[in-house]
Amino acid sequence: MKMFDYKRFEIFSRISYPKRLHKLYSYQDKPRNLIIFMKFNLKSIRYSQIDIQKGIKIPKKLTTLLAEDIGIHIGDGSLYKSNASKSTYEFFYSFNAREEDYLNQVLEIKRKLYNLKKYKITRINNELRLRFYSLAIALFYKEALKIPVGKKSRIIIVPPYILGGKANVIVAFLRGIIDTDFCLRFVGERGYPRFTSNFASKSFVMDLKSCFAKLGIHAVICLDMKKTDKRTSRCYNSNYIALIGLQN
After folding, report:
1. What is the total count of domains within the chain?
2. Is 19 part of a structural domain of the chain?
3. Are 62 and 161 in contact (CB under 8 A)?
4. 201 with 156: CB under 8 angstroms?
5. What string of H, E and C letters represents the secondary structure of 105-155?
6. What pLDDT score does 37 carry?
7. To the nearest whole percent, how much of the chain has pLDDT over 70?
8. 104, 131, 150, 180 - which has most CB atoms within 10 Å?
9. pTM
């Protein structure tokens, strides 16, 4: 996970897109939960007995907090059927050990949205791992939010209800993506700032470019880049996106 550097963002926001990009982080300490009037069809959502015992709840409407949660999950989350009978759904998130504050922020979002109180956090070397299980939340992601179960990196897209949503929805979604998958780099002798990231899904990068464009933010993309995994020597395609700062 690539946690967003808020201090460097303050530098970046004064150099480039001071009003437009700042929307993404103007409410970083107090995430708002603005209701955007879109209701989900929840008829296919089932609650396990354990879900009922835990008091799990499912959002009925699209909100900015839910849009941010979707961005976080697409950027850094996994959802799998984890047991031998493929009947148990496991959510998994990974954080750097220095990012415990952000892990707690993610847990607070999950608590507000789903009343999630039971979860497991483990530490392995410099990694913090968050796991929890819920049939109802998994079916909500799969059926209502249209987020794939299993490997999603090459097939993920920005969900249509986000891409075609209001600016507040897009802003919240991008905040979740940037927190988990973007890096802020300073390049060249003069230290020009760039937000950058790479994704396996070409469609997702093209959708992200459209999201930024709707906020008046120009993004540069480069598709089907040939790269080699240094560990395995295997070649793969990567798709690059960057927000390039403009000096005043």
Report:
1. 1
2. yes
3. yes
4. yes
5. HHHHHHHHHHCCCCCEEEEECCEEEEEEECHHHHHHHHHHCCCCCCCCCCC
6. 54
7. 82
8. 180
9. 0.83
User: How many residues does the structure list for the chain?
Assistant: 248
Is residue 1 assigned to a domain? no
Place of tokens 């850094």: 76
**Residue 62 forms part of a structural domain:** yes
Are the CB atoms for 1 and 96 separated by under 8 Å? yes
pLDDT exceeds cutoff 80 at 26? no
The 10s digit of each residue's pLDDT in 40-71 is: 889 999 999 999 999 999 999 999 999 999 99
Q: Give me the pLDDT at residue 212, please.
A: 94
Residue 196 phi, psi dihedral angles, 5° rounding: -135, 155
Q: Which domain holds residue 154?
A: 6-244
Single out the residue of 40, 22, 18, 12 nearest to residue 175, CA to CA: 22
**Coil, helix or strand for 193?**
strand
Determine if residue 188 is left, alpha or beta; phi over 0 gives left, psi from -120 to 50 gives alpha, anything else beta.
left
Between 199 and 185, whose confidence is greater? 199
In the numeric block, the tokens 């079916």 are attached to 139
CATH of the domain at 140: 3.10.28.10
C-alpha Rg value of the chain to the nearest Å: 18
- CB within 8 A of 114, min separation 6: which ones? 56, 57, 58, 59, 134, 137
